[in-house]
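sry for the spam today, last one i promise. C-alpha coordinates for design, 172 residues
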Protein backbone atom coordinates (compact mmCIF):
# COMPACT_ATOMS: atom_id res chain seq x y z
CA UNK A 1 0.00 0.00 0.00
CA UNK A 2 1.33 3.43 -0.94
CA UNK A 3 2.19 6.03 1.70
CA UNK A 4 -0.60 8.58 1.26
CA UNK A 5 -3.31 5.93 0.92
CA UNK A 6 -1.92 4.13 3.97
CA UNK A 7 -2.09 7.35 5.97
CA UNK A 8 -5.64 8.13 4.84
CA UNK A 9 -6.73 4.59 5.72
CA UNK A 10 -5.09 4.95 9.14
CA UNK A 11 -6.89 8.28 9.76
CA UNK A 12 -10.19 6.81 8.56
CA UNK A 13 -9.89 3.74 10.78
CA UNK A 14 -8.53 5.61 13.79
CA UNK A 15 -11.27 8.24 13.82
CA UNK A 16 -13.89 5.52 13.32
CA UNK A 17 -12.43 3.49 16.19
CA UNK A 18 -12.63 6.48 18.49
CA UNK A 19 -16.23 7.09 17.52
CA UNK A 20 -17.09 3.39 17.92
CA UNK A 21 -15.85 3.52 21.51
CA UNK A 22 -17.75 6.75 22.17
CA UNK A 23 -21.01 5.28 20.80
CA UNK A 24 -20.92 2.34 23.19
CA UNK A 25 -24.08 2.37 25.32
CA UNK A 26 -25.82 5.11 23.34
CA UNK A 27 -29.58 4.98 23.92
CA UNK A 28 -32.45 6.76 22.25
CA UNK A 29 -32.95 9.34 25.04
CA UNK A 30 -29.39 10.58 24.68
CA UNK A 31 -29.41 10.14 20.89
CA UNK A 32 -32.34 12.56 20.46
CA UNK A 33 -31.54 14.90 23.38
CA UNK A 34 -31.61 18.57 22.45
CA UNK A 35 -29.11 20.29 24.76
CA UNK A 36 -30.31 23.79 23.79
CA UNK A 37 -33.44 25.25 22.23
CA UNK A 38 -33.64 25.25 18.44
CA UNK A 39 -31.43 22.23 17.79
CA UNK A 40 -31.38 20.40 14.51
CA UNK A 41 -32.38 16.81 15.09
CA UNK A 42 -33.81 13.68 13.51
CA UNK A 43 -37.62 13.67 13.74
CA UNK A 44 -40.61 11.64 12.63
CA UNK A 45 -41.64 12.64 9.11
CA UNK A 46 -45.08 14.30 9.53
CA UNK A 47 -46.01 13.41 5.96
CA UNK A 48 -45.04 9.72 6.01
CA UNK A 49 -45.93 7.69 9.12
CA UNK A 50 -43.10 5.42 10.22
CA UNK A 51 -40.43 7.40 8.37
CA UNK A 52 -37.92 9.86 9.76
CA UNK A 53 -36.29 13.04 8.47
CA UNK A 54 -33.21 15.04 9.35
CA UNK A 55 -33.43 18.80 9.89
CA UNK A 56 -31.36 20.32 7.09
CA UNK A 57 -32.88 23.31 5.31
CA UNK A 58 -30.89 24.42 2.29
CA UNK A 59 -29.11 26.72 2.31
CA UNK A 60 -28.42 26.38 6.04
CA UNK A 61 -28.66 29.48 8.21
CA UNK A 62 -25.52 31.29 9.26
CA UNK A 63 -24.51 30.38 11.84
CA UNK A 64 -26.07 26.93 11.75
CA UNK A 65 -27.80 25.76 14.93
CA UNK A 66 -26.45 23.29 17.47
CA UNK A 67 -27.11 19.72 16.40
CA UNK A 68 -27.91 16.58 18.39
CA UNK A 69 -26.04 13.28 18.53
CA UNK A 70 -28.78 11.93 16.23
CA UNK A 71 -28.25 14.67 13.67
CA UNK A 72 -24.46 14.33 13.68
CA UNK A 73 -24.42 10.54 13.36
CA UNK A 74 -27.05 10.47 10.60
CA UNK A 75 -25.24 13.32 8.84
CA UNK A 76 -21.98 11.31 8.90
CA UNK A 77 -23.63 8.21 7.42
CA UNK A 78 -25.49 10.26 4.81
CA UNK A 79 -22.30 12.01 3.72
CA UNK A 80 -20.53 8.65 3.37
CA UNK A 81 -23.40 7.22 1.29
CA UNK A 82 -23.79 10.21 -1.02
CA UNK A 83 -20.12 11.04 -1.58
CA UNK A 84 -19.60 7.34 -2.30
CA UNK A 85 -22.65 7.18 -4.56
CA UNK A 86 -21.40 9.99 -6.79
CA UNK A 87 -17.61 9.63 -6.74
CA UNK A 88 -17.38 5.85 -6.72
CA UNK A 89 -20.82 4.53 -7.66
CA UNK A 90 -23.64 5.08 -10.14
CA UNK A 91 -24.53 8.60 -8.96
CA UNK A 92 -28.29 8.08 -8.95
CA UNK A 93 -29.24 8.68 -5.30
CA UNK A 94 -29.21 11.96 -3.43
CA UNK A 95 -29.80 12.85 0.22
CA UNK A 96 -33.58 12.83 -0.15
CA UNK A 97 -33.42 9.20 -1.34
CA UNK A 98 -31.80 7.92 1.85
CA UNK A 99 -33.81 6.23 4.60
CA UNK A 100 -33.22 8.08 7.86
CA UNK A 101 -32.83 5.78 10.89
CA UNK A 102 -35.24 6.50 13.73
CA UNK A 103 -33.19 5.39 16.70
CA UNK A 104 -29.69 5.07 18.10
CA UNK A 105 -29.09 1.39 17.29
CA UNK A 106 -30.27 1.76 13.69
CA UNK A 107 -28.21 4.93 13.20
CA UNK A 108 -25.05 3.27 14.51
CA UNK A 109 -25.64 0.31 12.18
CA UNK A 110 -26.24 2.65 9.22
CA UNK A 111 -23.04 4.59 9.98
CA UNK A 112 -21.06 1.35 10.14
CA UNK A 113 -22.55 0.15 6.85
CA UNK A 114 -21.86 3.52 5.18
CA UNK A 115 -18.17 3.19 6.03
CA UNK A 116 -17.74 -0.25 4.45
CA UNK A 117 -17.39 0.73 0.76
CA UNK A 118 -15.04 3.60 1.61
CA UNK A 119 -12.87 1.30 3.73
CA UNK A 120 -12.82 -1.38 1.00
CA UNK A 121 -11.69 1.18 -1.59
CA UNK A 122 -8.95 2.53 0.68
CA UNK A 123 -7.67 -0.99 1.31
CA UNK A 124 -7.12 -1.58 -2.42
CA UNK A 125 -6.30 1.90 -3.76
CA UNK A 126 -2.92 3.29 -4.73
CA UNK A 127 -1.61 6.82 -4.33
CA UNK A 128 -1.99 7.40 -8.10
CA UNK A 129 -5.77 6.83 -7.75
CA UNK A 130 -6.14 9.91 -5.54
CA UNK A 131 -5.74 12.35 -8.45
CA UNK A 132 -8.54 10.86 -10.56
CA UNK A 133 -11.44 13.28 -11.11
CA UNK A 134 -14.87 11.92 -10.26
CA UNK A 135 -18.42 13.32 -10.39
CA UNK A 136 -19.64 15.18 -7.32
CA UNK A 137 -23.16 15.46 -5.94
CA UNK A 138 -22.34 19.17 -5.57
CA UNK A 139 -21.82 19.53 -9.31
CA UNK A 140 -18.57 19.39 -11.21
CA UNK A 141 -15.89 16.99 -10.07
CA UNK A 142 -13.69 16.22 -7.11
CA UNK A 143 -10.70 13.95 -7.03
CA UNK A 144 -10.82 10.72 -5.09
CA UNK A 145 -8.29 12.33 -2.76
CA UNK A 146 -10.59 15.29 -2.11
CA UNK A 147 -13.55 12.99 -1.43
CA UNK A 148 -11.62 10.81 1.01
CA UNK A 149 -10.16 13.89 2.75
CA UNK A 150 -13.66 15.37 3.16
CA UNK A 151 -15.00 12.12 4.62
CA UNK A 152 -12.08 11.75 7.04
CA UNK A 153 -12.46 15.38 8.12
CA UNK A 154 -16.22 15.04 8.63
CA UNK A 155 -15.83 11.84 10.62
CA UNK A 156 -13.12 13.34 12.84
CA UNK A 157 -15.00 16.61 13.33
CA UNK A 158 -18.43 15.16 14.12
CA UNK A 159 -17.01 12.31 16.20
CA UNK A 160 -15.40 14.90 18.49
CA UNK A 161 -18.70 16.77 18.74
CA UNK A 162 -20.57 13.55 19.56
CA UNK A 163 -17.99 12.78 22.24
CA UNK A 164 -18.52 16.20 23.80
CA UNK A 165 -22.31 15.86 23.72
CA UNK A 166 -22.02 12.45 25.40
CA UNK A 167 -19.73 13.93 28.08
CA UNK A 168 -22.22 16.71 28.73
CA UNK A 169 -25.11 14.23 28.89
CA UNK A 170 -23.30 12.11 31.48
CA UNK A 171 -22.40 15.19 33.51
CA UNK A 172 -26.11 16.05 33.72
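last one done:
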Amino acid sequence: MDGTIAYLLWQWQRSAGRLERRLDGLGDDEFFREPVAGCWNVRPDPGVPGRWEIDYPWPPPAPPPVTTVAWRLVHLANANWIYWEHAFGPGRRNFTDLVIPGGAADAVADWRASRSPVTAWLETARDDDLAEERPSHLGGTKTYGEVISILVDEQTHHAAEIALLRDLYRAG
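The helical segments are 3-23, 28-32, 69-87, 104-124, 144-171. ok im logging off now
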